[in-house]
């Protein structure tokens, strides 16, 4: 395998429910310790005490060797960028020594310390699996509560530095690919409808031609103050399931009404992806998601949704930089600049995944 920065069993390499539309699920819970100011107003000595309490709670778990415990100041710039690309930390999070991070070895569960809140527990999973993510988060929260006192008020719920997180403290989200809705011109209306019903649907990457790059969007709850955690999970799961239904219907309509145009779009994408020598990041994201559309319309065979999802992580700049920093990859001698070397490696990784992929002609 070309990419040594991604373990073979990373959660985003797995197959998941409804992963033709839902690439990943995430549940995050925000908690703060009693007796300490929020991180945005905390003094260094108090923050160090919070970090010490949280780290100590982890060290008293039955299996502490399953976790990596880090002070942010000890994490190098490349490590920070890789974790940011995987959604574990924010790109602009501070690196003061009193900020911390705990990551389970499989990458599924992570805990940030003294970021926006004292403790933020997150869990990721492939496909639509919000309940599984929530179970992982709750298990970790219960373990930490044996040593930590989390701040709450009757009538308000758990306290947070963010008004939107006060209540259950839950941020529930899913990453979805809405290529069909975008090509049908329905996405703007869908975004407005979901916002009116208490959900945020926003572009995951930068905008291109008025759409999120690769038609990748993140749907999340707008507030943690409405209802209890069970009802919030149920409502979000129903919302994502509705998106799945709308996207699948839109794809089918496209193939029925514009079969030749769809074939042209998808076949051009796979030919370019399989034979390009250099692939800039934005172009690669667009191509991968066009190929994903082809897979789900039975126009492309030989590659799976989970393999394409994993590519979206593997081809990001910090991941490529990590691979290039080793000596296991040979790049042609005429490829000199760092940016071009990354574009070359990106093409190589994409083509490794697509080596058995091919077009499937329509019949009739």
Keywords:
single chain, 364 residues, alpha+beta, Creatine Kinase, Chain A, domain 2, 2 domains, 8-stranded antiparallel beta sheet, two-stranded antiparallel sheet, globular
What would you note in describing this structure?
This protein has 2 domains: 17-251, 2-Layer Sandwich (Creatine Kinase, Chain A, domain 2); 258-359, no CATH class. 42% of the residues lie in helices and 18% in strands. The chain has helices at residues 44-59, 77-85, 130-145, 179-183, 187-196, 229-257, 259-275, 281-296, 305-314, 317-324, 338-353, and strands at residues 22-31, 67-71, 100-104, 109-113, 119-126, 152-153, 157-158, 170-177, 199-203, 207-208, 211-212, 216-221, 300-301, 358-359. It has 364 residues and is of the alpha+beta class.
Give me the secondary-structure category: alpha+beta
Residue stretches low in confidence (pLDDT < 50, at least 5 long) are 1-6
Rg over alpha carbons: 22 Å
Report the β-strand fraction as a percent range.
Answer: 15-25%
What is the name of the CATH class of the largest domain? Alpha Beta
Largest beta sheet: strand ordering: 2-3-4-5-1-8-12-9
Number of domains: 2
Helix and strand string, N-terminal first? EHEHEEEHEEEHHEEEEHHHEHHHE
Distance between the termini: 39 Å
User: What percent of residues adopt helix (DSSP H or I)?
Assistant: 40-55%
The name of the CATH topology of the largest domain is Creatine Kinase, Chain A, domain 2
CATH-level-2 architecture of the largest domain: 2-Layer Sandwich
Q: Compute the average pLDDT.
A: 93
Identify the CATH homologous superfamily of the largest domain: Glutamine synthetase/guanido kinase, catalytic domain
Largest sheet: 8 strands, antiparallel
By DSSP, the count of extended strands is 14
- Helix count equals 11
